[in-house]
Amino acid sequence: MSLPRQLRDESDFDQLPNNIPISAAIADIEERTGFSAYYEFVIEVKTKGASKYLIYRRYRRFFTFNEKLQERFSAENQTGPYTCLLPPFPGKVFMGNKKEIAEKRIPELNSYMKKLLCLPTWVLLDDLIRMFFYQDESDSKQVPEPCAACPHPESVSKTTKVKPDLLSSLELRYIHFQILSNLLIKDPSN
């Protein structure tokens, strides 16, 4: 059976590599200091392969990520077949208590991530989304602070190191190539 035919016959979810994020939720916020104080969201990510790990993202990184998604997938910015309706993104707040602003953003960002990870599989397979939800080296080195809302704060600190799956990346590129080839090459019998 040819690969494009196989892709049409299997469910989209079954085609996803095991390291693809399928859910993400903010578990906590942590204050960071540097040039100025800011808050990072501690996000628990679950993958199709049942791995769980924590990533740390500032609102600024979410904002930049959303702008790049809009450039890549928004129907307003694209004329090709690969467009989709992206979930609404919570806007910037310019004044107020930083902790209160971060706490207010939790349900909004949770909703954003939930809707984002429910988009079609071809969007989930995009490197931009995969890299945003990927646990990088700085994420894996951080030890989360005890979460007041968690009954067992020590359970939050246990993470699984996710290793990039080269084979699934190559398979992904092949699948994309096959799909694009089928779209671009016209059948001579037509």
TrEMBL record:
SUPFAM superfamilies: PX domain. InterPro entries: NADPH_Oxidase/PX-Domain, p40phox, PX_dom, PX_dom_sf, PX_p40phox. One of its GO terms (cellular component) is cytoplasm. One of its GO terms (biological process) is respiratory burst. PROSITE patterns: PX (PS50195). Transmembrane segments: none annotated. GO terms for molecular function: phosphatidylinositol binding; superoxide-generating NADPH oxidase activator activity. Residues 19-140 form the PX domain. This is Neutrophil cytosol factor 4. It comes from Acipenser oxyrinchus oxyrinchus. The lineage of its organism: Eukaryota, Metazoa, Chordata, Craniata, Vertebrata.
